[in-house]
Write a structure and sequence with these properties.
- By secondary structure, this protein is α/β, with parallel strands linked by helices.
- Strands 4-12-11-10-7-5-6 form a seven-stranded mixed β-sheet, with helices on both faces. It has a four-stranded mixed β-sheet with strand order 1-2-3-15. It has a four-stranded antiparallel β-sheet with strand order 13-14-17-16, covered by helices on one side.
- Helices cover 38% and strands 18% of the residues.
- It has helices at residues 3-13, 46-49, 58-70, 81-94, 105-122, 143-148, 152-155, 172-178, 204-215, 284-299, 302-323, 352-357, 380-397; strands at 25-29, 32-35, 40-43, 98-102, 130-134, 164-167, 183-188, 191-192, 198-199, 218-222, 245-248, 259-263, 328-334, 337-342, 360-361, 363-365, 369-372.
- α4 packs across α10 (284-299).
- The protein has 13 helices and 17 strands.
- It is globular, with a radius of gyration of 21 Å.
- The structure holds pyridoxal-5'-phosphate (PLP).
- Pyridoxal-5'-phosphate (PLP) binds next to α5.
- Pyridoxal-5'-phosphate binds at residues 48, 104-106, 109, 138-140, 189, 193-194, 222, 224-225, 249.
Length: 400
């Protein structure tokens, strides 16, 4: 089948909750994707910051194939080897104490929410259940994660969720004003990804830690988009604070569906047996894939690569912004989570189709940010090629 045939069939049989571009991908290698018509693309979306080691990585493919042949799934009634080994590896890298595995970012945040509420319930404070989250934050689409998500349009039509108080990202005074004895925790992204590639101002995350300590609330960090090397270090909080718990997904499985909550000793007793779980969570196949991703990142120094390639990409984007002042207002981001900010009134999503036609995959973040999240294995030559296409496409948009 070709692209057109896939699109025609998809429109009939797939539920209409997405707005996919009219291409069907059939294979990939490194940062390159190939569609059903045989056209090649540079993938600077990486499945929305997921494919950390690129497409078709030989070591990851081998790990998945070997594990699939050995053992796929046994459930959490028993231990399985890759699951325990992955937990040990994440504990070692994060400095946190324990891991709970699930299947997505939203599920990892649901776990954080349940952890925070249950922690205070177990301490005799069942009414301590309010969360503080941030405007423009994105934490996922399930009802609990949706409650935390700080964009009202995502919550519209789904009824009462919460209690969550949303305050301005970066504003410690607003956070202080919103605190109270009923606040179980603060949940925050180190860089707001979906919200527009907005990094926390210097001292903000540290300030949240201090406020949580003062009020006895938990500091929960959503590292779904920022974790697993993307910012140039294993986790975004490193070098800033020690959180009480974090959420991971996306890059963790390199494309295999897996999420995780990592927790500190402080909250170890919050979710005893029977209070939370997942049939597929910690599945042997997903955990073996994740172990392979962590090994590749470590062996090939991909955290360091994310830092240096991120700086190179950022410099290229800055040149585009400076050269096209009628279209761009600037750049922002950290590591290989970079954004090119368009002028007010422009809609980033509307440009993605033209970029795709020209052979580059990007995503939009917020209303007017083009988001660049290539695989951590991206080369400078690929950055040169992709940014040249972006410059040309944006150049054509310039008002005549
Ligand atoms: C920071 C953050 N948290 C949570 C999620 C939700 O993850 P998932 O789509 O795997 O449920 C996302 C997805 O974009 C995210 O960026």
């Amino acid at each position: 089948m070709n692209n057109a045939e896939y699109v025609e069939l998809a429109k009939k049989v797939l539920y209409g909750n997405y707005r996919p571009a009219p291409v069907a991908f059939v294979s990939g290698q490194g940062c390159v994707l190939v569609d059903a018509d045989g056209k090649r693309y540079l993938d600077f979306a990486a499945g929305v910051a997921v494919c950390a080691v690129g497409h078709g990585h030989p070591d990851l493919s081998r790990a998945i194939a070997e594990q699939a042949a050995r053992l796929v799934h046994v459930s959490n009634y028993f231990y399985n080897a890759p699951n325990v080994e992955l937990a040990a590896e994440l504990v070692k890298k994060s400095g946190l104490a324990q891991a709970f595995f699930c299947n997505s970012g939203a599920e990892a945040n649901e776990a954080l929410l349940k952890l925070a509420r249950r922690h205070f319930f177990a301490q005799g404070h069942p009414d301590r259940n309010r969360m503080i989250a941030f405007h423009n934050a994105f934490h996922g689409r399930t009802m609990g994660a949706l409650a935390l998500t700080g964009t009202p349009k995502y919550r519209e039509g789904f009824g009462e969720v919460g209690p969550v108080t949303h305050v301005s990202y970066g504003d410690l005074d607003e956070v202080k004003a919103a605190m109270g004895a009923d606040v179980a925790g603060i949940i925050v992204e180190v860089v707001q990804g979906e919200g527009g590639v907005l990094a926390a101002p210097a001292g903000f995350i540290e300030g949240l830690r201090a406020i949580c300590d003062q009020h006895g609330s938990l500091l929960l960090i959503d590292e779904v988009q920022t974790g697993i090397g993307r910012l140039g270090r294993w986790f975004g909080y490193q070098g800033k604070v020690m959180p009480d718990a974090i959420a991971l997904a996306k890059g963790l499985g390199g494309g295999m569906p897996i999420g995780a909550m990592l927790t500190s000793e402080k909250v170890a007793a919050a979710l005893p047996p029977g209070t939370h779980g997942s049939t597929f969570g910690g599945n042997a196949l997903a955990c073996a894939a994740s172990l392979s991703v962590l090994q590749i990142i470590e062996r090939d120094n991909l955290c360091e690569a994310a830092k240096s390639r991120g700086a190179y990409l950022s410099q290229k984007l800055r040149q585009i912004a400076e050269g096209l002042p009628g279209v761009c207002v600037g750049t922002r981001g950290e590591g290989l989570l970079q954004g090119l900010v368009l002028k007010p009134g422009m809609v980033a999503r509307d440009i993605l189709g033209k970029l795709l036609d020209s052979g580059v995959l990007l995503t939009a973040a917020g209303e007017r940010v083009l988001r660049f999240t290539p695989p951590l294995i991206v080369t400078e030559a690929e950055i040169d090629r992709a940014t040249e296409v972006v410059r040309a496409v944006l150049g054509d948009l310039r008002p005549a």
